[in-house]
């Protein structure tokens, strides 16, 4: 099974024009994927773990490689198990963070964009994301089994059903 990661940097944009009436606009950094699995769709920065690499290190490396952001203090927010035609395909660790340095910049893999959390373009993302990402962006934790059918590649298969559990604890080794 492939082990992969996703990382969702969050910030409050209270600059003039972004917020009105004292409200703060909460934003998430998404990427428009320029190549590979999910090309053309929005997602968080992330990707496959290298051999021997822990998922937290992978999320930090992939975010640096894809958008040039140095993310820190990652909080584990989810574990997603993607099945294709009844078989395990990818196990994805999901993180969020409010701590990072640098400015997001485009690479040949990804184009970054700060997006208000209530304007996430779910119609231009993996179909399952609308089930779990809103809760993750609200600060909740989730485990999910997400089932696809129709053969490789995964991003051309049909999303068929899911089981989600919220309020999961990622304390201890599972928090890695
Ligand atoms: N269903 C769904 N929703 C949201 N995100 C994903 C899925 N399925 C997925 O596989 N993913 C995520 C998990 C990973 O972050 C990427 C896929 O990794 P990929 O881009 O292939 O990995 P890279 O390491 O960037 O690719 P290479 O550079 O190694 O080719 O999608």
Outline the fold blueprint.
Blueprint: E1 2-13, E2 25-33, E3 42-43, E4 46-48, H1 55-67, E5 70-72, E6 75-84, E7 87-97, E8 99-101, E9 110-116, H2 129-137, E10 142-149, E11 158-166
Parallel strand pairs: 1-7, 6-10
Antiparallel strand pairs: 1-2, 1-4, 2-3, 2-9, 5-8, 6-7, 10-11
Family: Belongs to the Nudix hydrolase family.
Domain Nudix hydrolase: 1-138
Cofactor: Mg(2+)
Question: How would you describe this structure in keywords?
Answer:
Nucleoside Triphosphate Pyrophosphohydrolase, 44% strand, binds the ligand Nc1ncnc2c1[nH]c(=O)n2[C@H]1C[C@H](O)[C@@H](COP(=O)(O)OP(=O)(O)OP(=O)(O)O)O1, 176 residues, nine-stranded mixed sheet, mainly beta, 11 strands, two-stranded antiparallel sheet, globular
**Ligand kinds:** the ligand Nc1ncnc2c1[nH]c(=O)n2[C@H]1C[C@H](O)[C@@H](COP(=O)(O)OP(=O)(O)OP(=O)(O)O)O1
What is the typical, i.e. mean, pLDDT?
A: 94
Tertiary shape: globular
What is the CATH topology assignment?
A: Nucleoside Triphosphate Pyrophosphohydrolase
Portion in helices: 10-25%
Query: Helices and strands, in N-to-C order?
Result: EEEEHEEEEEHEE
Count of individual domains: 1
Low-confidence stretches: none
CATH class: Alpha Beta
Structural class: mainly beta
The CATH H-level homologous superfamily:
Nucleoside Triphosphate Pyrophosphohydrolase
Query: Beta fraction of the residues?
Result: 35-45%
Profile the largest sheet: 9 strands, mixed
What is the straight-line distance between the termini?
Answer: 18 Å
CATH second-level architecture:
Alpha-Beta Complex
Radius of gyration: 16 Å
Task: Give the total of beta strands.
Answer: 11
How many helical elements? 2
């Amino acid at each position: 099974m492939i082990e992969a990661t996703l990382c969702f940097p969050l910030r409050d944009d209270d600059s003039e024009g972004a917020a009105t009436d004292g409200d703060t606009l909460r934003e998430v950094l998404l990427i428009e994927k320029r190549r590979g699995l999910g090309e053309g769709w929005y997602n968080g920065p992330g990707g496959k773990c290298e051999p021997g690499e822990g998922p937290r290190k992978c999320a930090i490396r992939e975010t640096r490689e894809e958008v040039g952001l140095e993310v820190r203090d990652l909080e584990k927010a989810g574990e997603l198990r993607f099945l294709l035609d009844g078989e395990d395909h990818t196990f994805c660790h999901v993180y969020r963070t409010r701590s990072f340095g640098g400015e997001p910049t485009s690479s040949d893999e990804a184009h970054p964009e700060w997006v208000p959390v209530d304007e996430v373009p779910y119609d231009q993302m993996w179909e399952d994301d609308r089930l779990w990402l809103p809760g993750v962006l609200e600060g909740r934790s989730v485990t999910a089994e997400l089932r696809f059918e129709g053969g490789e590649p995964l991003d051309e298969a049909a999303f068929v059903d899911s089981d989600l559990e919220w309020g999961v604890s990622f304390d201890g080794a599972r928090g890695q």
